[in-house]
Amino acid sequence: MATNKDKLMEGVRFLALGFxxxxxxxxxxxxxxxxxxxxxxxxxxxxxxxxMLTAAFLCIRGLRTVLSAFFDAEDEPATKxxxxxxxx
Length: 88
Hints:
mainly alpha
């Protein structure tokens, strides 16, 4: 069972891109979002939620890519070929 190193590095890149957003979203909500919300301004709440959703998307995509690099079968086209040609 070999690891697809290109796919693994792509997943690590997604995780590295998502890592700063994990901290920026809640920090922005705490520092700017909640005080602005009390004054009736909702823009910072929306921006911080958008940053948190971006973090979740990038991290989930990165984890899926890393796991597929470890656990996907190397002869995947051969298995698809067998499934598409059933014996009659």
